[in-house]
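agent> fetching stored inputs for the uridine-diphosphate-N-acetylglucosamine docking request
agent> found them:
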Amino acid sequence: MKILLTGGAGYIGSHTAVELIGLGYDVVIVDNLRNSSEKVLDRIEMISGKKPVFYKIDCCDRTALEQMFSKENIDAVIHFAGLKAVGESCSIPIEYYRNNIDSTLALLDVMKKNNVNNIIFSSSATVYGAPDTVPIKETAPVGRCTNPYGWTKYMNEVILTDAAKADPELSVVLLRYFNPVGAHKSGFIGESPSGIPNNLMPYITQVAVGKLKQLSIFGNDYNTHDGTGVRDYIHVVDLAKGHASAIEYAMKHKGTEVFNLGTSVGYSVLDIVKAFEEATGVKVPYRIAERRPGDIAECYSDAQKSKEILGWTAQYNLVDMCRDSWNWQRKNPNGYEG
Ligand code: NAD
Ligand code: UD1
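agent> prediction call returned; pasting tokens
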């Protein structure tokens, strides 16, 4: 079976490519390399023994997509391609809407023309906005997004759901990721943020490796066990395995189904700092700073539905996540550019 990974050169896509190749799937990657490096293809080969077929294509480019689909006999698509920086989405919202929505529309058109009926979409816990209660079930209200990035995820969910309502052949799986961290244990692939990281784990690893001076903890007066923000961190390899389960599910079902991919456990920023120091033996200097605008106190999943229907549960714990994030950072202090 041949699986197309749009955005497959990125952080989550590259880990999913390794997982799928390991399971015997043929993998085709389409990526415009806007936020990734072609070097990842060699790294995937180093781990899995197989280099994915690669097309440097912008997913908004229907003609290029059509040419690719006419050459490859695709069975299912995992649509990772998208811009994902919350802050940047507030400064260049039109580009975010165009890129993240046009790419889905183009893909759906070309899939239909080529009779490809299975699509898995990278959504995000961001669609839940500030949740009324935690843990968050898939049935919780969505669409209370606070930034253009979040709205593109919400709008894509609506577009894909409507497409499946109109086309009885189409199978759509919406995966709402919580906070992906970690890296493949080899240290060959991992997250390679450009500039100063916005997210917690890459910030911590860059402080630990000496690229940044200290971590700023955004607020210690939240209503949580130690006052710092609580999130559901999930190892990227667990996330990759969740995609393999979603493909199996999509091939057997029609219509739209949505799943949380999280661990059902929430950890605070201070829990993460402590776990990182224990797992790696490296100190992470920090200071308490103001709350970050738009942040919420707590966000963690109820992942029971994924367990029951997909047969998937996260296996890695916080120590694994910290150790593997550090292993990647230590071996690649400048990401793929080093
Ligand atoms: P990433 O930036 O590492 O990967 C996305 C890839 O898509 C990049 O390689 C980029 O070059 C490519 N891309 C972007 N626009 C494209 C286009 N128009 N055509 C072709 N390629 C394009 O991000 P990631 O962390 O691997 O995230 C993958 C997906 O998961 C994204 O849709 C993201 O929004 C979503 N997601 C990520 C997180 C997270 O924390 N990493 C959380 C929730 C959801
Ligand atoms: C962010 C995005 C969200 C996206 C998710 C996963 C925002 C507002 N939300 O979520 O849309 O789906 O990433 O990529 O950006 N923290 C610090 N210091 C730091 C960085 C973070 O204290 O330098 C804290 C934050 O306040 C938060 C926690 O660490 O409590 C996690 O932050 P982060 O990694 O940015 O993820 P989210 O804010 O959950």
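agent> quick read of the result: The longest strand covers residues 118-124.
agent> awaiting further instructions
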